[in-house]
């Protein structure tokens, strides 16, 4: 489902050149749940952003569902992301002025769907994460765990084949973190969603199919 070949990422300023990723080659199968671990600053989020087509590699090739993405235009990349990928972030990235249902509907605004279809899909996504009774609430009225459930609902509303999760349990206590992890495991098991998760938590990583470790921008496991 995801193939990275000899990925390198270099950040340059007028005076400094920083190698963020070096010679990363990785194949992620359809339906796999992969964890990425490593110390802070090792390139985990950079790698996830490249997989999610939010950032471009300096060198290397990316294929997602056998689609070569390096030469796609910005518009083509945006359409491809919206169709294939769902994103979950540590800090939720919800819009505080929008109700829960409206936050979840957001990705569908960029598709040719009717308001009724958007509402139906968002309602179903919220049901899957156990928040059917919170559709009219605002983010400020929710706990951290509930906000992350909304973020998961938003990520899955368009039925993406791939979910990329950057520290999805990082801001939560262990009990709530386990609940969020259970939702992701269930999505992977019942819907066959391919999931790539960056985490600092060994216990969470052990629940996934495979673990990749990074150190100083290189893959060490």
What would you note in describing this structure?
This protein is 34% helix and 27% strand. With 221 residues, it is an alpha/beta fold. The chain has a single domain (2-219), classed as Rossmann fold (3-Layer(aba) Sandwich), CATH 3.40.50. It has a 6-stranded mixed beta sheet, with helices on both faces. Strands 2-1-4-5 form a 4-stranded antiparallel beta sheet, with helices on one face. Helix 4 packs across helix 5 (144-156) and helix 5 (144-156) packs parallel to helix 6. The longest helix has 18 residues, at 174-191. It is globular and about 50 Å long. It starts with a strand and ends with a strand.
In short, what is this structure?
By secondary structure, this protein is α/β, with parallel strands linked by helices. The protein has helices spanning 44-51, 74-84, 100-105, 115-128, 144-156, 174-191, 202-206; strands at residues 2-12, 17-28, 33-37, 59-64, 67-68, 85-89, 162-166, 194-198, 210-215, 218-219.
């Amino acid at each position: 489902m995801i193939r990275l070949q000899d990925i390198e990422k270099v950040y340059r300023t007028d005076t400094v050149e920083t190698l963020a990723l070096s010679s990363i080659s990785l194949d992620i199968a359809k339906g796999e749940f992969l964890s990425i671990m490593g110390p802070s600053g090792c390139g985990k989020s950079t790698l996830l952003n490249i997989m999610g087509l939010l950032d471009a590699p300096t060198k290397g090739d990316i294929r997602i569902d056998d689609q070569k993405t390096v030469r796609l235009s910005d518009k083509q990349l945006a359409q491809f992301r919206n169709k294939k990928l769902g994103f979950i972030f540590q800090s939720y990235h919800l819009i505080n002025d929008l109700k829960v249902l409206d936050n979840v509907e957001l990705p569908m605004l960029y598709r040719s769907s009717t308001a009724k279809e958007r509402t139906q899909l968002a309602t179903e996504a919220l049901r899957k994460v156990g928040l059917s009774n919170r559709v009219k609430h605002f983010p400020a009225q929710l706990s951290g765990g509930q906000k992350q459930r909304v973020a998961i609902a938003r990520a899955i509303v368009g039925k993406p084949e791939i979910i990329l999760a950057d520290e999805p349990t990082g801001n939560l206590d262990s009990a709530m973190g386990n609940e969020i992890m259970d939702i992701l495991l269930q999505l992977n098991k019942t819907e066959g969603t391919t999931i790539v998760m960056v985490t600092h938590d060994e216990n969470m990583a052990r629940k996934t199919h495979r673990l990749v470790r990074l150190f100083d921008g290189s893959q060490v496991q």
